[in-house]
Amino acid sequence: MNEDIRIHSWPCSYYLDTSKQWVSGRLSLTPVAIKFTADKTGELLVNFRLSSVSEIKKESSNLIFSSLTILEKNTKHWFSSLQPNRNVVFNILEHFWREQLLSSQGAGAEAAALQSTKGKELTGLLSGSQKQLEDTAKVLHYQGEQFDNIMRGLNKIEGDMDVADRLLTELESPSWWPFSSKLWKAPLETKPKETATVSDSKNQEGIIIRIPVIITHRTDSNVKPGKLTLFASGLEISDCNSQVIHRFESKDVDDIRVHTPYEISVRQRFIGKPDTSYRLLSAKMPEAIPILEMQFSKKIQFLEDALGFVGARKSPQVDLGTSIWQAATGLLGGVVQPGSPVGGREGMDNDQVQLQKQEKISQEEAKELKQILKKLKGLALETEAELERQDEALDSITTSVDRATLNIDKQNRRIKKLT
To answer: Where does a domain end: 60, 85, 104?
Structure first.
């Protein structure tokens, strides 16, 4: 992710200690740093990393009213006249600062891992692909359950139409027909009544991902911290106490705009009343956007500042498992040679030696990469099989709907004749 991406910026004043005066300018936040640029000179007066911040506070005094202070190492930076207001800036800065602290807890181990950077990079890339494919499998599983429910409903409709057909046949039969009484009972005896199959999927469906977010409702200037939870059937926005603020079912979402890799807006349109719209900002948003892109492929829009994030990830869902698998094998071109068997011990040993010489990947890393690759292959095959099953189910649903339509038209004509 590009560290120079500007997540947000606010007009404000900065207290320049060297000249003992306030300087007007803009406070900017990037994924890893905080900057302040003076308006008049364009000079960058403040530039430090979030990881070096030890405290962010809202302060005021007799001389400085309604200010925000950031303690960076041993230097205290004062910002005032913040727009739209101090609380908004504080909530956003604190959110990204805390997430930066959480993500850098393993900084001590990072230095030791520098000797095998390539192996860690490959492992991270494949682990990300594995996580994305697992999320895809969850969505497909829920979608498959919905198809199964539709098929059960169509089967029940067909059963009911058989009953109606027999009843119409009874009505059309002459009064002297000796077998008329059996026609009324036959459907009830031979066709057991199917119990309601209303899926309790909302209670049973698992959470795909949950991330902390900063929430802005419509055009309100105030923001508040909360959580975004993605389900296979939609998304849910809740506050810090896990109280649901709003839940969007998949069919309710009209558009999702990706403003930056860290900020999105979700909207549901209405006629005659204001739209329901939420703007969500999060340091973890890059993890959620690929899932949103998969679930709402026709409704999601990447704006100019986010176009670099989507890159070449746009691909048909049908080829998702295959494409990830091919990407994984491409990354490990040096681990498993195209001409050698994956399970061959001799080939694997030679490749590991070659990798250690060329890329400095340890035996443990090569083993871990092979295990991830094996899991990826299994997930890709399962995903492909599930997609094929859903294609067949969709064909069956289409056929059943066409057959039911024809039967309904036929019965309508028979009813008109009777009336």
So the answer is: 104
Closest-CA residue to 3 (of 283, 230, 197, 258)? 283
In sequence order, which residues have a C-beta less than 8 Å from that of residue 382 and are 6 or more positions away?
A: 137, 321
Would residue 356 count as lying in a domain? no
Distance CA 260, CA 286 (A): 9
| Cα distance between residue 162 and residue 170, in whole Å | 12
pLDDT tens for residues 283-292?
999 888 888 8
Q: Is residue 58 within 8 Å of residue 68, measured between CB atoms?
A: yes
Model pTM score: 0.56
Task: Quote the domain boundaries for residue 288.
Answer: 207-308
Q: How far apart are CA 349 and CA 334, in angstroms?
A: 12
CA distance 393 to 399: 10
Query: Model confidence over 252-273: pLDDT tens digits?
Result: 899 999 998 899 999 999 888 8
Does residue 115 sit within a domain? no
Buried b (16+ CB within 10 A) or exposed e, 191-216: eeeeeeeeeeeeeebeebbbbbbbbb
Domains of the chain: total? 2
